[in-house]
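Today's session is about reading a structure prediction critically. Students often jump straight to the picture, but the first step is always the sequence itself: look for stretches that repeat, for charged clusters, for runs of hydrophobic residues. Only then move on to the predicted structure, which in these notes is written as discrete structure tokens rather than atom positions. Here is the chain we will use throughout the hour.
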Amino acid sequence: MIRTQIQLEEQQYRLLKELSAHYQVAVAELVREAVDMLLETKGEVVVSADERRRRAIAAAGRFHSGRGDLAKNHDAYFAEASDL
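Below is the predicted structure for this chain, in token form.
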């Protein structure tokens, strides 16, 4: 990886810190994800299939829904969330 510096507005930084805490990931990771999304919308292929797989595996189990039956009833919860 290449180390770089960026300047953010105070509100941008504050909101990134809140997202970072909520999702328990580094601010740098959120910035990398945002850059990937920007580049992908411009038609660039940025993240290889292997990298996407690695990220998916790394994310598995890191988030908690607070629901004990999510694996069994995920379709119902997804439908409920889609109606919002």
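Discussion point for the tutorial: The longest helix spans residues 27-41.
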